[in-house]
Amino acid sequence: MAISSIFNVKKQLTFYGAYHHDPTNIMIHEIFVPVILWSVIDALTVMAAFIPTYDYLPAVHIEFNEYLIFDLNVSAIHALLYILFYLVLEPTAALLYAPQLTMSLLTATTFSYIPNAFLIAGAIHIVSWIAQFIGHYGPEGRAPALLDNLVGAVVLAPFFVHLELLFKLGYNPELQKALETSVETELARIHVAEGEKRSKKAM
Description:
Layout: H1 3-6, H2 9-17, H3 23-47, E1 61-65, E2 68-71, H4 74-89, H5 91-111, H6 117-140, H7 150-168, H8 173-202
Helix pairs in contact: 2-7, 2-8, 3-4, 3-5, 3-6, 3-7, 4-5
C-alpha cells in the first residue's frame, strides 16, 4: 500500500467500513472497540516496566486525582501515535476524539496499579473480542477486517466508531455521504469477486 493511501481518510475508512456495514455490528463495535483499546492501554502500562525502551524515557508520574493518573511510558506513546495518525486522516474529528483517548489513557493507567490488573484487563479484552466476532459472523456475515489487514483494522477501529457517532450527531455530512457511497461501491466489488470465486469452484 502506498504511503499516500495510508493517510487517505476516504480509502482507509472505506476499507474498514466495508467490513462494518450492518447496524447491529456497528453498534457492537461502538461499545466494545473503546473497551478493547482501554484494556490494551492497561496491559501496556502494566508491562511498561519490562519493556527495554521504558528505561530511556524520563520519569513522569502525575496524579490528577485517585482515578486519573498519567505515566510517561509505552502506553502514552501508543496513544500519542494513534492521535497523530488520526490528525493526519481527519484533523477536526481527531481533536474531538482526543479527550476520549486521554480519559482512556488516564483511567487505564490508574487501573493498572490495582492487584491483578493485567489479568482483569486480559479477561475484558477477550470477552470484547468474542463480542466483535459474534457481530461479524452473525449480523455482518463477514470475517473481521483484521483477517485481511491486521494493523489497519486495529489502528482504524477506534477512529471509525468515533466517526460513526459523530455522523449520527450531524458531523460533516459531506464526508459521511462520500464514505457511504465509496463503501457501497467497495461492497459491490467484493460481492462480484466472491461470486466469481464461487463460480470457479463450481466448475
